[in-house]
Design a protein that fits this description.
Blueprint (H helix, E strand, L loop, with lengths): L2 H19 L10 H23 L7 H24 L5 H8 L9 H22 L5 H16 L6 H4 L2 H11 L1 H8 L3 H17 L7 H23 L7 H8 L1 H17 L4 H35 L1
Helix pairs in contact: 1-2, 1-11, 1-12, 1-13, 2-8, 2-11, 3-5, 3-13, 3-14, 5-6, 6-8, 8-9, 8-11, 10-11, 13-14
Length: 305
């Protein structure tokens, strides 16, 4: 898989999610939420399985590294979000600072990701004690148990058991066979695009045929992940704007709820809202990425000792 192209696709997914949360109403952005998150789930599953299979040292200091890369930025943005939500520093902010509950409707994906990493590591270590890691069982157990942990936070089955994640996982562990069918298969890419459009159209059958609606909700994110895999194994895309967004996609996901609240409180009109939302989220995401990268580099030096 071409890393640069994958990063560009993550950048595109980030913008899709931003437009969806901005409530831009058109046929393209109305699906941006579950399409974009499906792409991130697919890449998360793929990268986790790929690193597990191909890097023998991947789980060394795993919790420590993920704590710096995932949890600390999440915590920082959560506190800032609560400050904006309560319109300034107050006793409520102090409470959230000391006893965070990480309540933010837009960040449910991060909670899911944290549960995935926790259970992945636990199950992996248990398997190591039996001197054999079954990659299929590791992925399935991680997906199922992490999904069960998400039940108190969401009633959406796609939030609880995201099929795009487990699909990305299987693509990675079976890549030697899968890549032959997807690499530079341009006809398949066209078929995937048509399938995504049909699946998205099926989402409008919510009140007519619930079966078609559920099938569409589950299949569309998976198809988006597969399409991204096909593109990333067939092309090298050098879009600098999307690449910039892709490099800070995690931080962008964390920062954008802050600007949603800020714009709501100040009654900003839609064109200005879009500019403030996208530019503001990116600037904060870039600063957070830069700061956390420096912290991560120093933390790696500490871990060596």
């Amino acid at each position: 898989m071409n890393k640069k192209t994958a990063s560009v696709l993550k950048g595109a997914a980030s913008l899709m999610i931003l437009m969806y949360h901005m409530q831009v109403k058109n046929i393209f952005t109305s699906c941006g939420g579950y399409f974009g998150v499906g792409i991130f789930y697919f890449f998360s599953g793929y990268n986790l399985a790929f690193c597990t299979k191909n890097r023998s040292d991947y789980t060394n200091k795993f919790f420590e590294k993920k704590f710096v890369k995932i949890f600390i930025p999440f915590y920082i943005m959560y506190v800032i979000y609560q400050t904006v939500l309560h319109k300034g520093f107050s006793i409520f902010i102090l409470y959230h600072f000391v006893y965070p509950d990480f309540t933010c409707n837009f960040l449910w994906y991060i909670k899911s990701l944290i549960y995935i990493y926790i259970w992945y590591y636990i199950i992996f270590k248990v398997m190591l004690k039996f001197d054999k890691v079954n990659y299929t069982a590791l992925g399935l157990l991680t997906w199922i148990i992490a999904g069960i942990c998400m039940i108190p936070f969401s009633q959406d089955p796609n939030h609880i058991f995201p099929f795009a994640f487990i699909l990305g996982w299987f693509f990675a562990i079976k890549e030697d066979k899968v890549i032959e069918k997807f690499k530079k298969n341009y006809i398949l890419i066209v078929v995937e695009i048509i399938a995504i459009l049909l699946a998205h159209a099926g989402a409008y059958y919510m009140y007519n045929n619930i079966g078609i609606y559920i099938l569409s909700q589950y299949s569309a994110p998976c198809l988006c992940g597969i399409l991204c895999y096909s593109i990333a194994t067939s092309f090298e895309i050098n879009n600098k704007v999307l690449l910039c967004f892709g490099m800070v996609s995690y931080e962008l996901y964390l920062s954008h709820p802050i600007f949603i609240r800020l714009c709501e409180y100040n009654n900003i009109n839609m064109p200005l809202y879009a500019i403030v939302m996208i530019c503001g989220s990116y600037i904060v995401a870039y600063v957070l990425h830069f700061v956390m990268k420096n912290i991560d580099d120093k933390f790696k030096l500490i871990l060596k000792y």
